[in-house]
Structure formats: C-alpha cells, structure tokens
Amino acid sequence: MKWLRLYVDILDDEKIARMSDRTYRIFTYLLLLSREREQEGTIDMSLGDVAWRLRMPEKDIAKAIADLKALNILFEDNSSIQFINWSKRQFRSDDVNSRVQRFRGKKINKHETFHETLRETLDVTAPETETETEKEKLQKEKFPETLHRNKKPKIEFDGSHFVNIPDDLKAKWISIAPGVSVEQEITKAEAWVLSNPKLKKSNWSRFLTNWIVKAQDRAVRTPSFTGGNGNGAHQHFARHGKPQPRPAWEDEADRINAEYFRRKTAAPAADGEA
Questions:
Q1: Three-state SS for 40?
Q2: Domain 8-89 CATH assignment equals 1.10.10.10
C-alpha cells in the first residue's frame, strides 16, 4: 500500500493557514495523486485528466493550482505541475519491503539452524530410544501382568454391592466421619443405587465420599445420645445452637432406604410361605 508523510507542523504553517478549505482539499488530493504516479512530485497530466481522476470540476482544479503557485508550493513546467519541496518533505527513507525481507531471512536462518541441530541430535539419540522401546515391548509381551501392576482398580457397582473399595480410602472415611458407621452408610448407598438404576455415576469413589460426608453432617445436626456421637452432641449445641431442619432430599433418601430394606426382609418370608 502506498503512503505519504503528513507533518504535525501543518497546524502552524502560514501557507496552509492562507488556503481555503477547497484549495486545501485539492492540495491533499494532488499530494496523493503525485505519490500514486511515483514521479518524485511531478504530475504530468492535463487539467482535464487531473479533474477526472479527482472527480472534481476543472475550474476548481485550475483555481486551486493557481492558489498553490501563488503560495510557492507548486510550479508549472510545460504540461506538468511539480511540488517544489517534494524531495524535502516526501523523501524516501529506506526500502521497507527489503528491510522486512532481511528480517524474515534472519528468522528463517535461525529456524533452519535450530532444526538442523535438532535433527542431528535425534539422529544420534534415535538408536538408544529405539532400543529402549524394543525392551519395553519385549517386557510387555513376556510379562503382560506388569501392565496392571501399578494401576489401582476402580470402585465399581456390580449390580448389588460396591467392589474394589481400597482399605486406605475406607480408613479415610472412618477418620472424617466418626459419628456414623461407614459400613452401614455403604450399605445405604448400595440400596439407593438399586432404587435409582437410571442415575448412574461415573465416579463411584466421589459418590461414596460425598454420601459419607453428608451422613456425618446429618449425625452432627441430629445427634444421638445413645449412639457414636456421644458428648460431641452437647459440644456442638454449645458452639452452634439448635440444629437446622433437615433438607427434603435427605428425608426422601431415608424413605427410599427404608422401603428397600422392608422389601428385602419381606422377600425371604414370602418365599418360605410359598
């Protein structure tokens, strides 16, 4: 894209101040036209051609050129007009395109050097890497059981019970929920899952942890003086006041669990009567 220089001192330039708005506009257009033609400030076009290029009447162009000549900005030479101080005001600095190309060339050379060094490094270290890979493949073929040696089995629900619960995780549940029986809560969670077969979970470990934490919260809010909470109930009331009412979803969970155990205990009796 072609461009030209526009200086801030135009604001205080006496010649610019003496121009009419129409003359200043045509002066700017003539600068652009001169840059477009790339003839060092010379416009070798007839008055009619200039008027057509600028889409303005010839009389306006002629008057503006006369005003600019009077201000010693333009002079006419045969069939062309010339900006007097073009080389001073619109001088060429450096070739931007060549400068950008030189800069990009340096970057390309740096990248090529880097990639050549990288390829040389890979060529040297490739045999060792391939040897290690072959060793790993042979080990996997001879001892496939080592693939799963370091992997802990995920907690799964086999249709009636949770399996693969790690002992360290169960110990952690017991430590964070001293007011409940972890085994009983796992059984309750199994009953809830059986009663809601459509609500499948992708992370049973997180599900059971949340279940036991909520059970502990319920035990703290509604302490049992004969159960495992003991004196902690009195301390809780002293610190926090009366317990808050239970959420509705907890009542619904208890109802589902009670219904499940009722059906489970009633099933053997029905089979015996039959």
A1: coil
A2: yes
